Amino acid sequence: MTPLNPVAARGALAALTVAAALLLGGCGKEITPASVTGGSDALTIQSTGSLPPMYLQEPYVAPVAVSGGAGPYSLRVTAGSLPPGITLNSAGLQLTGKPEKAGTYTFTLETTDSRLNSKNREFTVTVAALPPLTLAPTLPAGEIRGETRVPVTITHPRDVRAARVVWTLPEGARVTRVQLGDGNGSGLLFVKQTGQQLTVDLGFRAVPRSGARVLLVSVKPAKAVKLTSTGFTYEARDGTGKVIAGSPAAATPAPATPAAGTPSPTATPTPPVTPPTEPGTPPAETPGTPPPSGGGQ
């Protein structure tokens, strides 16, 4: 075997180095560990780091946004703990359940993609008691001069199945139309107007979502007028007819105590709103209650 000439060996090595450099330069991309994984964006997990609030015993569903990397993705808790009653759906990338205990909880979620890249993010969420149910009109900021549609929105509906809304409008404003909003589905609607006072009875066949517009009231003024919620009251009931919420002005005041020797007058109670009991069956009319003078569509 002929010994390798050192000079020739060095020349051959230099030629191979130049050839390799030319080959890599022609590819237009330097081979690095990062570029081997492809040109996809970096893996991220919900960059805002925030989740919707949780309320005791209220159904909760919150998706956890994952992007970049290469799907499919998975999730797991790597530190801290989820609120009792809440579970992590790894395949569906969401938190679900009904919170069972109030408090503030901090936990870390880790997402992993199909290339085994991973990303962690810490979350803090507070479980609190559910705020009270409210019904409120969304009013224009200034005066109205033409026909205006005013939505009435419900928040934190709990188990509401019926509600009565009473709204006293300013002089010169009249109601031209009352209709169900997008939160009622195929609910029930009964309308009565006496002078400037509008009374609407609502029946819900399913509990509306929080933030839904359950009622739309069209108001037309005779002249420029500003609408206010000062004369707006409501009362909400569950499926058994129990009052579960109401504005302070909607509460029936306690009768005054008569002086000694003064006969007590007979009080006429205000008929309650009766929730629907069966699909297609409207609330029963209360004897002595005048029928509605108009109806919504």
Describe the 3D structure.
Mean pLDDT is 77; it is low at 16-39, 251-274 and 276-297. The chain has one helix at residues 6-27; strands at residues 44-45, 54-55, 60-63, 66-67, 74-80, 86-89, 94-97, 103-112, 118-128, 134-137, 148-155, 162-168, 173-180, 188-194, 197-203, 213-221, 232-237, 243-246. A five-stranded antiparallel beta sheet has the order 14-15-12-17-18, with no helix packed on it. It is 7% helix and 36% strand. The protein is mainly beta and 297 residues long. The longest helix has 22 residues, at 6-27. It has one helix and 18 strands.
Secondary-structure map with pairings?
Layout: H1 6-27, E1 44-45, E2 54-55, E3 60-63, E4 66-67, E5 74-80, E6 86-89, E7 94-97, E8 103-112, E9 118-128, E10 134-137, E11 148-155, E12 162-168, E13 173-180, E14 188-194, E15 197-203, E16 213-221, E17 232-237, E18 243-246
Condensed summary:
The protein has 297 residues and is mainly beta.
Notable features of this structure?
18 strands, Immunoglobulin-like, mainly beta, 297 residues, 1 helix, elongated, five-stranded antiparallel β-sheet
Number of distinct helices: 1
Q: Overall mean pLDDT score?
A: 77
What is the quaternary state of this protein?
single chain
Order of strands side by side in the largest beta sheet? 14-15-12-17-18
- Unreliable stretches: 16-39, 251-274, 276-297
Tell me, what's the shape?
Answer: elongated
Strand content: 35-45%
Strand count, sense and barrel status of the largest sheet are:
5 strands, antiparallel
Rounded to an integer, what's the Rg over CA atoms? 33 Å
- Separation of the first and last Cα atoms: 103 Å
What is the CATH C level class of the domain at 134-250, in words?
Mainly Beta
In the CATH hierarchy, the architecture of the domain at 134-250 is: Sandwich
